[in-house]
Design brief:
heterotrimer, A alpha/beta, B alpha/beta, C alpha/beta, A: alpha/beta, TIM Barrel, 8-stranded parallel β-barrel, 13 helices, globular, B: Fumarate Reductase Iron-sulfur Protein, Chain B, domain 2, FAD/NAD(P)-binding domain, 5 domains, 5-stranded parallel sheet, elongated, disordered C terminus
Chain lengths: 346, 705, 234
């Protein structure tokens, strides 16, 4: 269960290998080139997670690129998980960017299809709905390609690589998406393709999630890849409702809706109080969710998404008992260096 | 006889059933269009005795009408009568057209002025021949005028038909009997090149039973003639009429009107076997006549040589195994019936006086040697037609025979040889399938009230009137327009299946290309309007005709100095009109103020180009008026039309002209009641639009832009 | 069937406004079936344009025609002749893009304008509703996906779908768009081959599609045989 040789030597990989309950946190880059925004978030979150995901033109909105943002946060000492969507780049650009990322020291990559460019942040922004999308290869093919580059030393097209990118390969999973019976199968496909870690879509319905995990455990997939449960931090009732109705694969049980509703109405007409109540309830719910998923076997960690609410993350992790994070010995870093220098396996 | 519609190999069954193949389908169509004069031309071109047949024909057309499966046959005979009654002035003026262009030298003599002889004479005179008709009575018409009771056929009606014939140039000589006053040989010597014997069956048969010579025993034809004389006989007491055919019924009903108390008809036949028409039997019953079926007269018993009653024997069968008349009796089963008068109406035979003194061959049993296919006799140049040739028939069949005779004689005179005319069976459209009949909207037939039986007996007036215009229009619209349905042009059809999906009657199918089986198609036109390849046309509704009408209209307007503004075209559902007078007068009146209405048989047939073409021609607005709520004959038609109107409106919007120029209304009440309001509202609206878009002032002149 | 939709009339009018004699040509195959450019539509467009020009007091002669297909030389030749004989200044084609291209090739110096927007290959799923079903990728993989094309019917053309955006059978981009992969899953369940979806479909060779450049198909058996041949040499 514990791999002898590290694939990437990343901190994230080590944490998992050493059996800790992992924590990753998402950072959203700005829509302009203001590096300070990224750096500030990095400073705020330093030390609170084992690795930090930087989104890649999420919801079809142009933002400071994931790779560049990853380098920025690495300057502040954070470990980055870069995200690579299939929507914007063909297989050449993807591979070139992977090689570049590896050369810049990025060690984790999350491979995802990417929201359709017509999204434009669910209509709130203009975005670029008329852009030609690429989808040259899909997320699973991307995982396989990356694995080929890392483990077999070949580009997707067949040409050899001398120095291989040592990347910890991740993918997303929507456990409760439609059609539900296909979801475990698709996870299996990703595992077969070589995925090292999985970050799921936000989970609120613990019951159903647990049921899906049972299927996954029966298939033995939890041993072949590290599954982190996605946790989205709800700010208010409106957000819960929106996610439940409009975000595919996210379902919010009525009990949570009720709690948020009660929190809101307890404030009466006082809007400020209502906001505070809901925020507090949201954090409470988040902490509970973290505790609940921790108990589900097969779950190796959590992936926290606090969209534009990063400043509450410290508090959440505190209350969930997830901080401080394990600080791995320098030896670990050496290991990473070693495995990087090895062209082949022994 | 008109060819069938171009699309079709078969004819509507009403046309096939008519012995002279009157195009009854076209007749119904003309009536719906208000083209009563054209309808009259259609009738008279085929049947010069249209007035007569419009009263007394046995209407085989109605009996084969395909609409019967839906609710009831179309009342074609009444429609015919309506046309005749409505176009009396035109009937006179059209006579000018009847004069033949070229006159010929040959003289032809016709003996007898019944329907067959006069029809032949009429045809021949129109071909240019010089025709003289010899009639032994003082007035023409044969049995039509001299036997059929006036409650069935007023003499004025007979005169109407005969006057046309005479006006065409037929010379009528009355009071002269051929075979008596002149012989056939005389006629040839006088220069006649051909002679047509059309004397009919003018003699009544009698019975050879004991007591037949008693007083009070009458023969049918002489009796009927006496009824028509200036001093008709009076009747009382009990009358027995022997016979089961229409003549017997005429006799029986006449006696009732003359005062007879109890009238009984004795026939050999069972009720179903009786040769009389069903409706005649029914009317006779209503008038209190009793039927005694399956009885034959055995003898007459009398007192003081005056009839007192009849002894009857049971008739057990009338017809042979092969259908020949061969009554069989059971002498043991007898009955008696009392009678003060007995009238024998068992059949007629021909009077062969006309051949006296000629060499024409007469066979045993007083039968003239003749050939039904060439209409010739044993003597060259002498022809025979009508009942004298064929045996007892109806009036319309007699007319047919007259046509055949004219053809035979003309051929003989042109070529010197006889023309063989076998009877041709026209191919008839198949029956209406049950599943199609179920989908057709039911429309109760228009009925005309008949005089109550007790009223009828008072005198010899007609028991039933004809249709009013409103009634005729309503009844004519029930015609299914057989054989005029949709036809897809194979070359253009893309097999796109639109017609299959649109057809509300489930008619259209696609094999290689679209097919609309004739026996199912209801000619609604929805497929034609929707076809994206413009491959489907309906024979009945010629869009081209409508376009031409539009074009003529606009060209005509452009020629005048004042183009009305705004110019509005109105497509109006023809089926809502209850009098063509409204269309002609009101519509003309509105036309002067810029609203031109075009009657369309069901506006649901209008395609998008149809809706746009008025604008192409310069109209400022279009008002479409459909039938009233619930009236439309075709399911889904209104929705489809509204869809097409929407399309046309968006075309006008896209081109910057404005879709609001098209208005759609549903008739309320009737055309007469609601259309003028719709026109006014639409006109005002278009006026506003025009003012807004072009800055017109009220004088209609364009201001500068 | 190639599915197209007629361009708005004002747009069409802007193409041809400066010409005085225009020929509108319909197509009797796909354009007819999808109600975009058959003979009936030719009549409607001609009528609309005439009405527009009439309102502006412009004298424009609009001729109408329709051929079985605008993508065959034999069917197009009579049009070429007509254009020449009738002195047509501009042609408006209501055929699909292929027809416009083909006509333009043959007319050379007379401009050909498109009257419809050609959209996709599709079929009628119900009367009046056509849905895209084929992307013309040049290497059909429908045997792998139960007959439902992931390239045409998945908004992201994912070959190993569905993605996480599938919700209630609909695609994340719109509730009007079916999730192609949902359809595939349902179909393969019915056929009994759902397990095949475990196999990874590898990255595709797109060179057979339009991404590889404009394509060409040749059937040599139809190449014209020169006249006067004695036959194959023995």
């Amino acid at each position: 269960m514990v791999p002898a040789v590290l694939k990437s030597g990343s901190n994230f990989e080590r944490v998992l290998r050493d059996g800790h309950f992992a924590v990753t946190v998402e950072i959203g880059p700005p829509m302009d080139c203001n590096e300070e925004v990224v750096l500030e978030k990095a400073r705020l979150l330093r030390g609170l997670a084992d690795a930090f995901n930087i989104t890649d033109n999420q919801t079809g909105v142009v933002r400071l690129s994931s790779i560049a943002s990853a380098v920025l946060i690495m300057r502040e000492g954070l470990e980055a998980v870069m995200q690579m969507t299939c929507r914007d780049r063909n297989r050449l650009a993807i591979q070139a960017d992977i090689l570049g990322a590896a050369a810049l020291g990025i060690k984790n990559c999350l491979c995802i299809a990417g929201d359709h460019q017509s999204f434009g942040a669910a209509g709130r922004l203009k975005g670029h709905p008329g852009a030609k999308n690429v989808y040259d290869i899909d997320s699973i093919q991307l995982v396989a390609a990356l694995k080929g580059m890392r483990d077999d030393g070949v580009q997707q097209g067949g040409d050899p690589l001398e120095k291989r990118p040592q990347i910890f390969i991740g993918a997303a999973w929507t456990p409760l998406g439609d059609p539900i019976e296909i979801r475990p199968l698709r996870l299996k496909k990703k595992v077969e393709a070589g995925v090292d870690f999985i970050q799921t879509q936000g989970v609120f319905d613990i019951e159903r999630f647990r049921d899906q995990m049972k299927v996954v455990i029966d298939m033995g997939l939890h041993e072949r890849t590290a599954i982190l449960a996605g946790i989205i931090v709800p700010k208010n009732l409106g957000m819960l409702k929106y996610m439940n109705s409009s975000v595919a694969g996210v379902s919010v049980p009525d009990s949570l809706m009720k709690r948020m509703e009660q929190a809101r109405s307890a404030a009466g007409d006082d809007k400020k109080q209502a906001r505070e109540n809901q925020a507090e309830e949201g954090i409470k719910i988040t902490v509970e969710l973290i505790e609940q998923v921790r108990e589900i076997s097969g779950i190796r960690g959590v992936h926290i998404q606090a969209i534009e609410w990063e400043h509450r993350v410290p508090e959440i992790l505190q209350r969930a008992g997830l901080v401080p994070r394990p600080v791995l010995s320098k030896g670990g870093a050496k290991d990473a260096g070693k495995s990087q220098n090895n062209g082949r396996r022994g | 006889m008109e060819k069938p519609s171009e699309a079709s190999e078969s004819y509507a069954p009403c046309i096939v059933a008519c012995p002279v193949h009157t195009d009854t389908r076209q007749l119904a169509e003309y009536i719906t269009e208000g083209k009563y004069e054209q309808a009259l031309d259609l009738l008279l071109d085929t049947n010069p005795f249209s007035s007569v047949c419009g009263r007394i024909c046995h209407h085989p057309c109605e009996q084969s009408c395909r609409r019967a499966k839906v609710d009831a046959p179309v009342g074609l005979m009444k429609l015919k009568r309506f046309v005749i009654e409505t176009t009396q002035d035109y009937r006179i003026t059209r006579r000018e057209k009847l004069q033949p262009k070229e006159k010929r030298n040959e003289k032809i003599a016709v003996v007898g002025s019944g329907p067959s002889g006069l029809t032949a004479a009429y045809d021949l005179v129109k071909m240019g021949f010089q025709v003289t008709v010899f009639e032994r009575a003082q007035t023409p018409g044969g049995l039509l005028g001299h036997a059929i009771p006036r409650y069935r056929l007023p003499y004025s009606v007979v005169e109407e038909d005969i006057e046309d014939i005479l006006a065409a140039g037929v010379k009528l000589v009355t009071g002269k009997e051929i075979g008596q006053d002149h012989s056939i040989d005389d006629l040839f010597e006088q220069g006649f090149r051909s002679i047509l014997l059309a004397t009919g069956l003018s003699e009544s048969r009698t019975l050879n039973i004991p007591g037949i010579d008693s007083r009070g025993i009458l023969l049918a034809l002489p009796f009927l003639k006496s009824v028509l004389s200036p001093k008709p006989p009076s009747m009382s007491g009990r009358v027995v009429v022997i016979g089961g055919g229409n003549v017997a019924i005429d006799v029986a009903r006449s006696t009732r009107r003359l005062g007879a108390g109890k009238v009984t008809m004795l026939c050999l036949e069972s009720h179903d076997e009786m040769p009389a028409w069903e409706w005649e039997i029914e009317e006779a019953r209503e008038e209190g006549i009793t039927l005694m079926n399956s009885w034959g007269p055995k003898s007459v018993f009398s007192e003081d040589s005056t009839v007192k009653g009849l002894e009857l024997k049971r008739c057990v069968s009338v017809f042979d195994a092969d259908g020949s008349f061969n009554p069989q009796f059971d002498d043991a089963d007898t009955a008696t019936v009392p009678a003060d008068t007995a009238i024998i109406a068992i059949g007629q035979y021909g009077d062969l006086t006309c051949v006296k003194g000629s060499s024409l061959e007469v066979k045993a049993g007083e039968r003239l040697t003749s050939d039904p296919e060439t209409l010739s006799t044993s003597r060259e140049g002498v022809f025979v037609c009508g009942e004298l040739l064929t045996g007892p028939t109806s009036s319309v069949e007699a007319v047919r025979d007259g046509h055949r005779a004219a053809k035979s004689i003309a051929h003989y005179l042109d070529h010197g040889v006889l023309l063989t005319q076998p009877y041709l069976e026209l191919p008839s459209l198949d029956d209406l399938p049950d599943e199609t009949a179920e989908k057709i909207k039911k429309q109760a037939p228009v009925t005309v009230e008949m005089l109550l039986p007790q009223e009828r007996l008072k005198e010899f007036t007609e028991i039933e009137g004809g249709f009013t215009e409103k009634e005729a229009l309503a009844e004519a619209r029930r015609c299914l327009a057989c054989t005029t349905g949709a036809l897809a042009d194979e070359e253009k059809c893309a097999a796109c299946l639109t017609c299959v999906r649109i057809c509300p009657f489930g008619v259209a199918t696609v094999e290689k290309t679209a097919i609309m089986p004739e026996e199912k198609c209801q000619a609604c036109g929805l497929c034609a309007a929707a076809c994206p390849a413009a491959a489907i046309a309906l024979k009945r509704f010629g869009t081209n005709k409508m376009k031409e009408q539009l074009q003529d209209l606009v060209t005509g307007l452009k020629g005048t100095s004042q183009l009305p503004e705004p110019l509005i075209i109105s497509y109006c559902c023809l089926f809502e009109v209850t009098s063509r007078g409204f269309v002609h007068e009101k519509a003309v009146e509105y036309g002067k103020s810029g609203i031109y209405s075009i009657m369309v048989p069901c506006v649901a047939r209008l395609s998008v180009p149809d809706i746009l073409s008025p604008f192409e021609l310069g109209a400022d607005g279009l008002t479409i008026i459909s039938c009233s709520e619930g009236s439309c004959l075709y399911p889904t038609a209104e929705e489809r039309l509204l869809g097409r109107i929407r399309q046309a409106k968006s075309v006008l919007d896209e081109i910057g002209v404005g879709g609001e120029r098209i208005d759609y209304w549903k008739t309320q009440g009737s055309a007469e009641v609601s259309w003028t309001s719709f026109w006014e509202i639409s006109r005002r609206k278009v006026h506003q639009i025009e003012k807004g878009s072009k800055g017109h002032d009220y004088s209609g002149e364009k201001t500068s832009q | 069937m190639i599915i197209a939709e007629r361009k708005p009339l004002n747009e069409i009018k802007s193409f041809i406004e400066n010409y005085r004699k225009i020929l509108i040509v319909g197509c009797g195959t796909c354009a007819t079936v999808c109600l975009a450019g058959g003979e009936a539509e030719v009549k409607v467009v001609a009528s609309g344009l005439r009405i527009g020009f009439l309102r502006e007091d412009m004298e424009v002669e609009i001729l109408e025609d329709c051929v079985t297909r605008q993508c065959e030389p034999e069917f197009v030749q009579p049009l070429v002749e007509r254009v020449e004989n009738d002195g047509v200044e501009a042609v408006l084609s209501l055929g699909c893009g292929v027809g416009v291209n083909f006509l333009a090739d043959r007319l050379e110096s007379v401009p050909v304008f498109p009257g419809v927007n050609t959209e996709f290959f599709g079929a009628a799923v119900e009367p009046g509703v056509w849905v895209e079903m084929c992307a013309g990728c040049g290497n059909c993989i429908l045997h792998l996906t139960g007959g439902i094309c992931p390239i045409a019917r998945c908004s992201k053309s994912i070959l190993n779908g569905p993605c996480g955006g599938s919700q209630d059978g609909k695609c994340e981009i719109s509730p009007d768009v079916d999730c192609g992969w949902n359809l595939i899953v349902e179909r393969m369940k019915k056929i009994g081959t759902l397990h095949r979806l475990e196999e990874l479909i590898p990255p595709r060779d797109w060179s057979t599609s339009r991404h590889g450049g404009p394509r060409r198909v040749v059937h040599e058996e139809l190449a014209p045989v020169p006249q006067g041949d004695e036959g194959p040499a023995s």
